[in-house]
Amino acid sequence: MTPLDRVAIIGVGLIGGSFALGLRAAGACRRVVGVGRDPVNMRTALERGIIDEVAASPQEAARGADLVLVATPVAQFPVVLGALAPMLEPKTLITDGGSTKRDVVTAARAALGAKSAQFVPAHPIAGAEKSGASAAKSDLLQNRRVVLTPLPENSAEALERVADCWRACGAQVSRMSPEEHDALLAAVSHLPHVLAYALVDEIASRPEAETFFAHAAGGFRDFTRIASSHPEMWRDICVANRDLLVDEIDRYSARLAKFRALVAAGEGARLEQIFAAARDSRDAWLAGQPLPARKNRE
Amino acid sequence: MTPLDRVAIIGVGLIGGSFALGLRAAGACRRVVGVGRDPVNMRTALERGIIDEVAASPQEAARGADLVLVATPVAQFPVVLGALAPMLEPKTLITDGGSTKRDVVTAARAALGAKSAQFVPAHPIAGAEKSGASAAKSDLLQNRRVVLTPLPENSAEALERVADCWRACGAQVSRMSPEEHDALLAAVSHLPHVLAYALVDEIASRPEAETFFAHAAGGFRDFTRIASSHPEMWRDICVANRDLLVDEIDRYSARLAKFRALVAAGEGARLEQIFAAARDSRDAWLAGQPLPARKNRE
Q1: What one-character DSSP code corresponds to residue A71?
Q2: Are strands B145-148 and B172-175 parallel, antiparallel or unpaired?
């Protein structure tokens, strides 16, 4: 791709910072301007060479930019996009790093109006429990999936230009509707985060919490890794995707109730069968192989 | 400690194999005899130098041994200990690697009768999702906690000798009652395993399971790592500890229902507060620091 002259990053955290570093590493941009709420984080972004310059506002960052990445928690999108709308130049494309897409599309339409064709929604599926510019790295998006949820008004050219930027960072770009995206991610990302937060919260709320944690080992550590994720970001995701997330919590709770009944009844043979099928499915997924056939997909 | 002349390992898997390798690395034993159900696994154990010899039965392995480690899934303990009881020499101590302790103590009392003082129950808290002799390693127990749940009839000398063997493998040995052990582990180990198995089972049971897995990332991978654990071992744990595990599932389900209500109501501020508290607790635990004070421990 032709290198971009000027890229604006609004929210220079894990995703925003890694996107900037990825573009730079690929020689895909000349100048990166960043803006963010936390001066300490912005200084880190400058010191680490993620950005060349700190702007005072989203508008200042976006002025003259070929591409703007909005990578704040999703609840800030209406304000950020509202600030950009009046000054958005025709040459500027916007993409984003939001983990939910229906709310982002709604916010973009409302804020940008006739300019919404310049906004190409994206979700880089590459989170981590670390956040901020200090956690950003140039290869975070390498071989990671980036889902675009295009608007009908996006031109083919705008879509390709935005896709090329994500590909320059090493990502594999795919497309789907915002609804399909939010349903998939509710199940494989938002639900597990809620489950992990709930476990840590439950254990930490006990009077003898210290003793419980003292006997937790590697399994607990990995299971709860995502409970060290960014609280504000996950607040916004839970609120934005709450209808689909509640559906997933309900499905999961029903499944857990089945497990409870099997455990209570000491149904060892059935438990072993389920555990083995779960292990086989997970191992096939990790190996990049088709999932094993299930006799009783229910 | 004085090196042991002969150690018998019954079940040469991750724990049994790592215990043998740890003792060897510390120069704490001269000869290791192993026994197990799977000939392929036993050949691996021989080839990797975990054991010197394969015995045809637990009795043959235990003959003349100073120490026997029983490291099979816990449901096999009644049969294994029953086989050892008649031929158990006065000089031989037995310890185990079982993840539950009330059932193990009951099985030991029933099988060993007057010889139960020779059995010192132990749980090395050092699992992994890999199993078998191929996964064993000499440093698996390094700095890991091993909980002894002594029987009143254990002599101080027997306790110290068994503790010394675990310490020779690098473990930190502590003591508690079988009841306390099983309650702690139900919360921080058995429950998370059930939760992870339930999530994978739920997703894998959907007709569009491939698409869901295709959009899962690192968070899902780590959250479900323990769902790749040994199905038979976890079957036995769930059945052996079912009363306490059901209590934990109920506590967790109640907490999850609270989370569901907060998500459904879009209670962002409260969710962020809970997520931040969970993250702070987890991070403090990982850093080996005291848990932060909670305003409303409930």
Answers
A1: -
A2: parallel
Q: How far is CA B128 from the centre of its chain?
A: 9
| B178, B148 Cβ separation under 8 angstroms | no
Q: Pick from B173, B241, B260, B275 the residue to mutate for testing the A interface (most A CBs within 10 Å).
A: B275
Test mutation, A15, A130, A140, A197, chain B, max B CBs within 10 A: A197
Alpha helix locations (H) across chain A? 14-25, 39-47, 58-62, 77-84, 102-112, 156-168, 178-185, 191-204, 209-214, 218-223, 231-240, 242-264, 268-286
Per-residue pLDDT band at A1 (split at 50, 70, 90): confident
Cβ A251 vs Cβ B261: under 8 Å = no
| Residue ranges, chain B, pLDDT below 70 | 295-298
Q: What pTM value is reported for the model?
A: 0.94
Pairwise CB contact (< 8 Å): B219 & A192: yes
Q: How far is B256 from chain A (nearest CA, A)?
A: 6
Partners of B141 in beta bridges: none
What is the total residue count of chain B? Answer: 298
Cα separation, A203 vs A214, in Å, equals 11
The candidate with the shortest Cα–Cα distance to B201, out of A247, A254, A264, is: A254
Complex ipTM: 0.94
Q: Which two tokens stand for residue B83?
A: 């086989």
DSSP SS3 for A77 = helix
Q: Among candidates A93, A217, A248, which has minimal Cα distance to B15?
A: A217
Q: 3-class DSSP state for residue A197? A: helix
Cα separation, A258 vs A37, whole angstroms: 46
Q: Are A61 and A55 in contact (CB under 8 A)?
A: yes
Closest CA to B277 of B250, B259, B261, B253: B259
Specify the residue for token string 């972004």. Answer: A45
Residue of B nearest to A199 (CA): B252
Tokens 């099997």 appear where? Answer: A262
- Nearest to residue A259, comparing CAs of B3, B178, B252? B252
Inter-chain CB proximity A222 and B227 less than 8 Å: no
Residue A81's pLDDT is what? Answer: 98
CA diameter of chain B: 67
| Closest to A31 in 3D by CA, of A55, A59, A1 | A55
**DSSP 3-state assignment of B288?**
coil
Dist CA B96 CA B140 (whole Å):
16
β B53-54/B67-70 pair status: unpaired
Q: Do A227 and B263 touch (CB under 8 A)?
A: no
pLDDT at res. A294: 77
SS3 A120: strand
DSSP letters along B6-55, please?
Answer: EEEEES-SHHHHHHHHHHHHTT-EEEEEEE-S-HHHHHHHHHTTS-SEE-
